[in-house]
Design brief:
By secondary structure, this protein is an alpha/beta fold. The protein is built from 11 helices and 13 strands. The model has no long low-confidence stretch (mean pLDDT 97). Bound molecules: uridine-diphosphate-N-acetylglucosamine. The site of uridine-diphosphate-N-acetylglucosamine (UD1) has 21 residues, from helix 7 and strand 8.
């Protein structure tokens, strides 16, 4: 019988791509989402791409213990991928209580329920933000985490630690929780079908949605935050990981847990390409690939940005048997195709 994976936050940007890849790898998927930061566009897209009309969908909030408990009562869950969380850095600084309550309580509920139902494999969606401004680049999984600079970043660190502690406490018991934290670098792009992609509400905080919205005329001009950084062209360096590649890393990690291939009950992997790309390079590549002249200007640095971060990916390559494959050009073409399709879908 197919193994079953619960994807919390499965109607969102990364969650919808992961749902597609899980289904095409032969898993049954249950999606839970409170729809606080998305609409049904991506979930409908998932159904079209996979040709599956009957994916179980629960509009629930994981902060509600009884709702999470119902999921585990109604389904025999082999693994959980937990995406359901708030993710806007600036908003987390302004509204820390909202971030701590949502991001911590939902994860604690998942863990407590999973444990009470006999244990489970749990994949936590973490972030490269846990490394902060690292001294030595690229960062490995052993690079020390620095104190978080935002409540959002702090929730990622705290949830990693919670998972580690729960794994430790349940090892050898009848309710074993195995855990993997995937530390994403900068996820960008969309599915090649252009049926699912990033759907930011309001003004995008992240670079690529801002670029595509500027290209389509929703925004007047892209502001490039800082061109006086100590890098070759003066703009920040990031490791932009294609969202489909990122989704495949989740399938690899879930299989590793379900197939009993883990070397430790709790493991951490960087998920990136291992290649630094500057903001300016990314903008130029977008223009080149899509034949678009983008309206942009250089402005002051954005407070809180790190100069440079990119991943050492050897551990994920070797242990997960996974490697980023799509080129940044393909990814930027997919982001643009999605933005254009979205303007049709939203008409
Ligand atoms: C941020 C968060 C990270 C979070 C991720 C996804 C920080 C330090 N990091 O990553 O924790 O997981 O978002 O939500 O807050 N840029 C522009 N113009 C724009 C937007 C961005 O020049 O309009 C630049 C930024 O200065 C940065 C790069 O593009 O150098 C990438 O920015 P962004 O997409 O926001 O991601 P991060 O800040 O790297």
């Amino acid at each position: 019988m197919a193994k079953k994976v619960l994807v919390s936050g499965g109607a969102g940007y990364i969650g919808s791509h992961v749902t597609v890849e899980l289904i095409s790898a032969g898993y049954d998927v249950v999606v839970a989402d409170n729809m606080s930061n998305c609409d049904m566009t991506c979930f409908e897209g998932v159904k079209k791409i996979t040709g599956k009309d009957d994916i179980p969908f629960y509009q629930i909030d994981c902060c509600d213990f009884a709702s999470v408990n119902r999921l585990f009562t109604e389904h025999e869950i082999d693994a959980v991928i937990h995406f359901a969380a708030f993710k806007a850095v600036g908003e987390s600084v302004a509204e820390p209580i909202k971030y701590y309550r949502n991001n911590l309580v939902s994860f604690l509920n998942i863990l407590e329920v999973a444990k009470s139902h006999g244990g489970c494999n749990v994949l936590f969606s973490s972030s490269a933000t846990v490394y902060g401004e690292a001294d030595i680049l690229p960062v490995t999984e052993q690079t020390p985490r620095l104190p978080a600079t935002s409540p959002y970043g702090n929730t990622k660190q705290m949830c990693e630690d919670i998972l580690r502690d729960v794994v430790k406490a349940t090892t050898g018991s009848e309710n074993v929780i195995n855990g993997i934290a995937l530390r994403y670098f900068n996820p960008i792009g969309a599915h090649p079908s252009a049926l699912i992609g990033e759907l930011p509400r309001g003004v995008p905080n992240n670079l690529v949605p801002f670029i595509t919205q500027t290209a389509i005329g929703k925004r007047e001009c892209l502001s490039i935050f800082g061109n006086d950084y100590p890098t070759e062209d003066g703009t920040c360096l990031r490791d932009y990981i294609d969202v489909v590649d990122l989704a495949k890393a989740h399938v690899a990690a879930v299989s590793r847990m379900i197939d009993g291939k883990m070397k430790n009950g709790y493991e951490v992997f960087n998920v990136g390409t291992g290649r630094p790309v500057s903001v300016y390079e990314l903008v130029r590549a977008f223009e080149r690939v899509n034949g678009i002249e983008l309206n942009y200007k250089f402005v002051d640095r954005r407070p809180g940005d790190v100069v440079a971060i990119w991943a050492e990916t050897t551990l994920a390559n070797n242990e997960l048997g996974w490697k980023a494959e799509r080129t940044v050009e393909e990814t930027l073409a997919s982001a643009w195709a999605w933005e254009r399709n979205l303007s049709l879908l939203q008409k």
